[in-house]
Design brief:
The complex is a heterodimer of chains A (214) and B (668). Chain A has a single domain, classed as Cytochrome c oxidase, subunit III, four-helix bundle (Four Helix Bundle (Hemerythrin (Met), subunit A), Up-down Bundle). Helices cover 73% and strands 0% of the residues of chain A. Chain A is built from six helices and no strands. Chain B has 668 residues and is mostly helical. Chain B has a two-stranded antiparallel ribbon. The chains are: A mainly alpha (214), B mainly alpha (668). Chains A and B meet through helix 1 and helix 5 of A and helix 6, helix 7, helix 8, strand 1 and helix 19 of B.
Chain lengths: 214, 668
């Protein structure tokens, strides 16, 4: 397949097969199938987080005489974290727009900024975890803290994986240019990155906001 | 350097696992050597191991399932033998710590590495063919899914030789499965193997939901899809929503065990009921992941061999999707006795009974499909009828168990063991054997020997009833499950009958192997040259047996339910095939070793985690990531099959079909 062209209308796809969605005209093209599959993966990831949220909700009171939510969480720090992540998502959207226009310099710039903001988020999270563990409020302290570290840490792991993916994508775009399948991958990355925002908003609300209510 | 791994991990002082593993090692080496001497490695590598062809991957899944069936059955017959022998003064031949590993391994292997790959294997092989397309939505990911399942199976079996397996039952309930009470590597083998294969299962679910919803032949609207595709859709939707929960709950137990977290521990505020809820939120839908595609197989078999359309197609679709949803509303019936309270128990008891309604609809649909049809009593029909007789009774004992007060009496007893074997063997295994017979000619171009197939059926049917009906009796008498020693000698006759039943099932498994070997040897007598050996109704019978890599020279145009039947009848009536289409070159995905490489590193990483060899675990992760990046960097995605080749094959196919058509119209 040469750069910049969609897959020929044969093979897994079918002639005149664009966008019906009801199967009347044959298999969808890859530009529909790939993001659709990725959305399904994101859905399953949401289910994964919902199980972690359920565990957190069950165990939030099980502090075993240790520190409780309001003693541990710092709203200001989390606010900075949240802003960094949300802006990162916006910037990722800008990267997608410039990528569709095949503008290499700006795409790389916006992607870099996306990654740096993600890194800011991650650093604050690591700092927060480090301080808590140093204060003796590590995940081994109580069931509540186990659930907290697992839920927030799982989101952090997703961000880390996202950064790894992002770095690989930047290298790939640089090496191969804006080919159709690479643009599709970038689209999937941005779906992933936005989905992490949605989960973070839930974490921010359920863990930090409710946790620091007076 | 090697974490907890020392020479003590090899069971030198336990003859049973030691000799078994040596025999298995010798067998694997022998087969590898034999394949090498025959010069078949390149063929295996190109056509199977690295293949992205959904049909080849389906066959690999089913081979994996059959191998693991032998392993799981070996565990089963040892348990039955132990319970027959260890009565009164005798202690039998299995010490408790070994017996506990065996029942844990039996359940884990039968569900995760027999039933799951068998079902997924059929979905792989059949769904794209029935949808009239050339492959699944993500062919490479499909290969990766398979190899991750296989590496899970590898890790489970490695526990036989290096270390030990869990002694905690097939779901590893805490606090018993916590570090404090199970300090060995057994539970870690269980956890890691299921995590690795679970990733593969989620990827499979993504793949098949996308395939069914987004890639179908032109004209194949939802209400024209074969029932097997509907049941596959329902099953994969459940997988997509249930398996992440299993991943979470197993990860939490791993965190407890490896890093001292307190999710399910007795101290630190841990809550083991959380584990019960989460594991069964996955565990009950899992039952329907297995049984829905089984219902799909029965539906195909009933329609084909009755020579008439499935009765109540639409009600079948709605029943399937209703089960898909209700399957999420019943999980608590697995622990009625654990103190949820009467009202909650009542809600879940009623929900559990409601699920019997759509299932009942299905039974009547199959009966009415057979009724008035010209039923051909082939092997798959034997399984269909055997299933209906067996499954209805198994379902009824399930309704009994769904009544909380009765559950309080018989929970955790052999009654329960009898019930779930009743529905899983009677429902799932019979379907898998029916599907194996039904689709075998499509995969390999010749049918299986009919007489031996019927012998296998009778072994399963009689063996099952002898093996499990006595357990209902014993359950009523208060026999709990998982007992290594029986103190009441009056139970002996029933346990001995159960043992005989297990032996007969074992004979059935041996006969399956005999049937396969004999059928291969005499394959020229039963060649399927027409591609349609059973006078089928769905699109997989339109193409050759075995189908070309690309399945269809042009994607079939679908004009109604039972796409192929309609086309066949029109052709017979008009005494000609549809006009020869304009053939195009076909683009197919290239082979890739990504799956097997990633699975290699996943196995390495999993093994390292089990034994606390952290440098190796990190190396495994880096290796898997590197393999992905290497794959993502490829430039060649597809290869083109030239139009001349497609046209030549298709013309030959048309000639054969024309001859077949004439023979059909002469016979009617």
């Amino acid at each position: 397949m040469t750069a910049g062209t969609e897959a020929p209308a044969i093979g897994l796809t079918h002639r005149a097969s664009e966008d019906t969605g009801h199967g009347h005209r044959g298999p969808e093209s890859k530009s529909i199938v790939v993001p659709y599959g990725f959305w399904l993966f994101v859905l399953s990831d949401m289910v994964l987080f919902s199980a972690l949220f359920a565990s957190y909700a069950t165990l939030v009171g099980a502090t075993d005489g240790g520190p409780t939510t309001s003693q541990l969480f710092d709203r200001n720090l989390v606010a900075i974290e949240t802003i960094a992540l949300l802006v990162s998502s916006f910037v990722c959207g800008l990267a997608l727009i410039t990528a569709k226009r095949a503008n290499m310099a700006w795409t790389q710039f916006w992607l870099l900024l996306t990654g740096l903001l993600g890194l800011v988020f991650l650093s604050i999270e690591i700092y927060e975890f480090g301080t808590m563990i140093a204060e003796g409020a590590g995940p081994q302290r109580s069931a509540f803290l186990s659930a907290f570290f697992t839920l927030v840490g799982c989101h952090g792991l997703h961000v880390t994986a996202g950064l790894l993916w992002l770095g690989t994508m930047m290298a790939q775009i640089l090496a191969k240019g804006f080919r159709q399948h690479i643009i599709r991958r970038l689209l999937c990355f941005s779906i992933f990155w936005h989905a992490l925002d949605i989960i973070w908003v839930a974490i921010f609300t359920i863990v930090y906001l409710i946790g620091t209510l007076p | 350097m090697f974490g907890k791994l020392t020479w003590d991990a090899i069971p030198f002082n336990q003859p049973i696992p030691l000799i078994t593993s040596l025999v298995i090692l010798a067998a694997i080496l022998g087969i590898a050597l034999w394949v090498w001497r025959k010069g078949w490695w390149p063929y295996l590598w190109n056509e199977y191991i690295t293949s992205t062809d959904h049909k080849r991957i389906g066959v690999m899944y089913i081979v994996l399932a059959l191998l693991m069936l032998v392993r799981g059955f070996a565990d089963a017959i040892m348990m039955r033998a132990q319970q027959s022998l260890a009565i009164g003064a005798s202690q039998g031949f299995l010490p408790p710590e070994h017996y506990n590993q065996i029942f844990s391994a039996h359940g884990t292997i039968m569900i995760f590495f027999v039933a799951m790959p068998f079902v997924i294997g059929f979905m792989n092989f059949v769904v794209p063919l029935q949808l009239g397309v050339r492959d699944v939505a993500f062919p490479t990911m499909n290969n990766v899914s398979f190899w991750l399942s296989a590496s899970g199976a590898l890790l489970i079996n490695l526990s036989l030789f290096i270390g030990e397996f869990a002694r905690t039952g097939w779901l590893g309930f805490p606090p018993l499965s916590e570090k404090a009470f199970s300090p060995g590597v057994g539970v870690d083998y269980y956890l890691v193997a299921l995590q690795v294969s679970g990733v593969g299962t989620v990827l499979t679910a993504v793949n098949f939901v996308t395939t069914i919803l987004k890639t179908r032949a032109p004209g194949m609207s939802y209400m024209r899809m074969p029932i097997f595709c509907w049941t596959a859709l329902a099953s994969n939707l459940i997988m997509l929503a249930a398996f992440p929960v299993l991943t979470v709950v197993l990860a939490q137990l791993m965190l407890d065990r490896f890093l001292g977290f307190h999710f399910f521990t007795n101290d630190g505020g841990g809550n083991s009921m959380l584990y019960m809820n989460l594991i069964w939120v996955w565990g009950h839908p899992e039952v329907y992941i297995l049984v829905l595609p089984a219902f799909g197989i029965y539906s195909e078999v009933a329609a084909t061999f009755s020579g008439k359309p499935l009765f109540g197609y639409r009600s079948m679709v709605f029943a399937t999707m209703a089960i898909c949803i209700i399957s999420y509303c019943v999980w608590l019936h697995h622990f009625f006795t654990m103190g949820a309270g009467a009202n909650l128990n009542a809600v879940f008891g009623i929900a559990s009974m409601i699920i019997g309604i759509p299932t009942g609809v299905k039974i009547y649909n199959w009966l009415f499909t057979l009724y008035g049809g010209r039923v051909r009593f082939t092997v798959p029909v034997y399984y269909l009828i055997g299933f209906m007789l067996t499954f209805v009774v198994g379902g009824l004992t399930g309704v009994l168990l769904a009544i909380p007060p009765i559950d309080f009496v018989v929970h955790n007893s052999l009654f329960l063991v009898a019930h779930f074997h009743h529905v899983i063997i009677g429902g799932v295994v019979f379907a898998l054997m029916a599907g194996y017979t039904y689709w075998f000619p499509k995969a390999f171009g010749f049918t299986l020997h009919e007489g031996l197939g019927k012998a296998v059926f009778w072994c399963w049917f009689i063996g099952f009833h002898l093996a499990f009906m006595p357990l209902y009796v014993l359950g009523f008498w208060g026999a709990t499950r998982r007992m290594q020693h029986i103190s009441d000698p009056t139970w002996a006759p029933w346990l001995n009958i159960a043992f005989v039943g297990a032996v007969i099932i074992g004979l059935g498994i041996v006969l399956t192997v005999v049937q396969l070997l004999y059928s291969i040897k005499t394959r020229d007598q039963r060649r399927d040259v027409t591609g349609d050996p059973w006078d089928g109704r769905t699109l997989e019978w339109l193409t050759l047996s075995p189908p070309p890599h690309y399945n269809f020279a042009v994607l079939p145009d679908v004009h109604g339910e039972e796409a192929y039947w309609l086309r066949k009848q029109t052709a017979i009536k008009q005494d000609q095939l549809i006009e020869e289409p304009d053939y195009q070159p076909i683009e197919m995905p290239v082979n890739t070793p990504t799956g097997v490489i990633v699975a290699f590193f996943a196995s390495l990483c999993g093994f390292a985690i089990i034994w606390y060899i952290w440098w190796l675990a990190i190396l495994g992760l880096i290796g898997a990531f590197a393999a992905f990046v290497w794959y993502a960097w490829r430039d060649e995605h597809e290869h083109i099959i030239p139009v001349e080749e497609v046209r030549a094959n298709a013309r030959e196919r048309r000639r054969v079909r024309m001859e077949h058509l004439h023979s059909l119209s002469q016979s009617t």
